[in-house]
Structure formats: C-alpha cells, structure tokens
What does this fold into?
Amino acid sequence: MVSRRIKDLSYAIRDVAVIANEVKKSGKKVYHLNIGDPIIFDFMTPEYITRSMVKAALSGKNFYVDSLGVDELRNEICSLENHKNSINLKPDDILVTSGVTEGIFFILAGLMENQNEILIPGPSYPVYINYTKFFNGIPIEYELDENNDWEPNIDDLRKKITDKTQAILICSPNNPTGALYSKKEIKDIINLAGEHDLPIISDEIYDQIIFEKEYSCPASLSKDVPIIGLNGFSKAHLATGWRLGYIYYKDPDNKLSNLKEGLEKMARARLCANSIAQYAAIETLQNPGPHTEEMVRKLKERRDYSYKRLKQIEGLNCVNAAGAFYLFPKIDFKEFPKWKTDKEFVIDLLKKTGICTVYGSGFGVHGKDHMRLTFLPEIETLETIYNLLEDFLK
Ligand SMILES: Cc1ncc(COP(=O)(O)O)c(C=O)c1O
It folds into this structure.
C-alpha cells in the first residue's frame, strides 16, 4: 500500500541517476552532469566551516535547538539579508529550515489545497511541481522565453492568473535555464502581484553565483507586495549535504501573518533543523571567506568552455547562463532524427557515453526537447565529455 500522493512523485534529476548506476555497474565511467552539487567535484566545503561544525559537535551542541532556528543564526541571517538587499527584516522574520527544499515544502503546505493554483516558471525546478501536487494544488507554468534569454513572459503570466492563484514563484538565477530575471521583469511581476493581491515566493539559492548580468532581488524592489524569500548554505557556502536553509518574510503590512504562524507550527511539528550545521553557519556568516568568489571565478571559466563547445555542435542551440551552474540546450530533432524525445536522447547518451544529463521534459512542459547539463567538472573533464558528446552525435 502506498498513497497516490507518493506514487505520483517523480524527480528526473535523481531518476536518471538510477540508470547511471546500471551503466556504472557495466564498468563504464559515468560523468555526472545531472546533479547540481559542486561538492562532488573539486569544490570543497571550506575547512574553517567544517571545523566549526566539528567544534559544535565536540562541545556538545548535539541537542534539539529552537524550531525556528538558533537565535544567533536568525540574527546573522537577518543582518545578511538586510545588508545584501537593502531591506529591513527583523530576526523574527527568519525561519531556519533543512535546506531550501524544506522551505518550499513548508510554504506549499501552507498555501496549497483543494486544487488551487500557484504560478511557477516553465521550465521549472521539479520540486515546485512535485510539492504543489503533493498538497493537492495545481502548478501552473508561466513561460520563460528562450528567444529572450529565458526571461519571463509577462503577458503569459498575466493571462494565467485566476481567482484560484495563491502566489507567483520567481527563481532567479534560474534552474534549469541559468537565466537571471531582469530588473524590469521583476518589477512587472511585482506590479502584477500587487494588482491581484498575491504574495511572491522568491527562490534565491543561486543569488551569489552570477557571471555578468546584475542580480535584482524582488524584496529590494517591492514596497508593499509581500515577499517570501528562500535561501541557504548549499551552494554559496558549498555545504549541500548539511541541509541548511531559511525562509525570510518581507511583509510590511502583515499580510502573511496567518501563513507565518502556520509555518511556525509546521516547524515545531518537525522539531528543528540540524543543530551543529546551524552553529557552523553562524561562523560562516560572521567570517565570510573567499570561497564563494573563488567558486564563481572557476565556474565562469567552465561555463565559457562548455558554452563554446555546445555552440560548435550543429543541432544543439543554447542560451548562455548568466548565473547558477546549468546550461539548457535545445535539441533539434530534425538534425537528429534517430531520437524522438529528449528522454530517449538523454538515456541513449548516458548508455553509450556515460554522460549523465537530465531530460528537459523532467522540468515540466516547457522543458520538452531540451537537456540540462551542469558545468561543474574541471575543464579537462569537460573536454573529455564534449569530445564524447560530439562523437555520439556524429
Ligand atoms: C532552484 C533550487 N532551489 C532549491 C534547491 C535546493 O536547495 P537546498 O539544498 O537548500 O535544499 C535547488 C537545488 O539544486 C535548486 O536548484
């Protein structure tokens, strides 16, 4: 026996990993371009952060901590967000979660029921789709326009607002496209949300991983439209496995007070986020090291190399990434009639070459005919990967 809710869950990013394991068992080397985890490559969690986690454990901080997060960490996060985005949060506006993933789970638990709707970007990070359905809501994808650097199509978004819409979700820098929403588009979304009295959910997990365009934070552009922000320590602080993130509320008119209270109940019901990771995070925020800058520098080189190689391949068309660590090329099936769908293409690529990517249709209807690849490996590995890809397509 298993509930329909669970049976219907799918997560392409990890689903391809199952096939990758079979390929590995057959003795073939697998190149993991499917998972957005820098730590499995040559990016290390900075030693001083790891030491502070060990210190916290050795000094006995292995107990349940406050459900809303350790006070000192909430203070530090509050100062960080206020400084980064010129906003004016109070520590009480912060809820520490087990990664952004748990934050998304909480927010959707708080907003979705009875087939009501949430507007999410399309293509979409699959977690938004999964959890919305899990809580009996309907994910409605507004178009990110590939012909316009994957910027959100505001007319499409406007058309999709109904009396069942509960919120508009923004993910910038974006997974899977690598796009940054421009300031103008974010302002337009805020205005639309204001007209319809909707909150904005802003997933900012990649806000520190930006290559050239300027990052615009919805909370810093909104006067009174409530913003529910999400961020964490997985990417910028290279601690994916520690599972630590947070929700912040910018809500000057207290429109979110019921939701906020509800999410605090959710937090208490699951006891707390990882205690020792929270103590390490305090250290990280008090003594920010050079690791984020260093990572962005390396990633930019790897992005440039990957983009250059992809552009040379007839039949793959790619918008360059402005942030995060993903490229999302379109596969021209006229050029490659051997394969019929993106899933077929990606699985065959994996079986023949060991290159593990994710099929675009795993990111919702707008992802069809694409594939997502990370540019996390070192250049020498990327070189091998793109040589294999070229041979495969020949
Ligand atoms: C857009 C987006 N949000 C959230 C997450 C998950 O973040 P966390 O590790 O904090 O749960 C990811 C991970 O890849 C992501 O791409």
Observations:
- Residues 36, 99-101, 125, 171, 175, 203, 205, 232, 234, 240, 245 surround pyridoxal-5'-phosphate (CB under 6 Å).
- The two ends are 47 Å apart (CA to CA).
